[in-house]
C-alpha cells in the first residue's frame, strides 16, 4: 500500500457494502442521514486497539442519542474476532473483518514499522496493563495480521462526506473524545 494514499476532508467516503462478523449486511449508503465514526484497528489481540474500542463502546449509547453511529474494522479473520467474548459483545456496533486489508487500502490506512516499534517500546507495557485491568484480550497475531498496521479514524457526515481524517501518529493516537462528541452534536469539527 502506498503511504501517499490518504482521504481528504469533504470527499465522499469510499463506499462499502459488507457482512459484519455477526452476519449483518453493513451498507454505508444506509447510514445517509446519520453521522458515522469509521475506525480501522489492528488485530484482535492488540491492547492499543482493544482499549480504544472499550472506551468507544462505553460511550455508544450517548453518541447514538446524538445521532452518531460507529463501524469498526479489524484486520483479523472473523473466527479470530469471534473467539473472544469481548469482540462478541461489541455488537450492536458493526465489526467488520478485513484480513486482506481491502478497505484499509481504500481508506489509506498506513503500515509503518517505525511507528509501531516506537509505540511498542514506549507504550506497550502501560497499555497492556490498562487492557488487563479492563479484562480486554491481549494475544499474539494470527494469520495475515501485521504488527505494522497503524490505526485510523474517520468522521463522516449525513451526506457521506469525510469531515475529519485521523491517521494515527502512534498506536495510542486517536481522535479525541471531545472532537467526536462535538461532531455528534453539531456535525462540525474544530469550530
From TrEMBL:
Pfam families, per the entry: AhpC-TSA
PROSITE patterns cross-referenced by the UniProt entry: THIOREDOXIN_2
InterPro entries: AhpC/TSA, Peroxiredoxin_BCP/PrxQ, Thioredoxin-like_sf, Thioredoxin_domain
Keyword list, A-Z: Antioxidant, Disulfide bond, Oxidoreductase, Peroxidase, Redox-active center
SUPFAM superfamilies: Thioredoxin-like
Family the UniProt entry places it in: Belongs to the peroxiredoxin family. BCP/PrxQ subfamily.
The protein's name: thioredoxin-dependent peroxiredoxin
